[in-house]
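Let us practice reading a record.
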Amino acid sequence: MLDLRPNCECCDRDLPPDSDQALICSFECTFCRTCAETRLGGRCPNCGGGFQARPIRPPDKLSRYPASETRVLGSQPACTAARTAESAAD
């Protein structure tokens, strides 16, 4: 079962279970569409694979099979720079 991770591993943007902006690789690394397409060039920085849209779990299944609450952050230079820029903008 997919974890449905709660954030982009690059910029830390929230990606709720019903987000159409969440993309995953075959290892469930999770990124927002913006980071995947612009910062990462369409390739997962962890495994080198491509991305697919993350499926949306039906709301009636979330109570029994909840999304993960564990935030994962990558250490790739493009991602740390993205988070620094986001922090400076706040």
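A brief commentary: The helical segments are 33-39, 59-62, 77-89.
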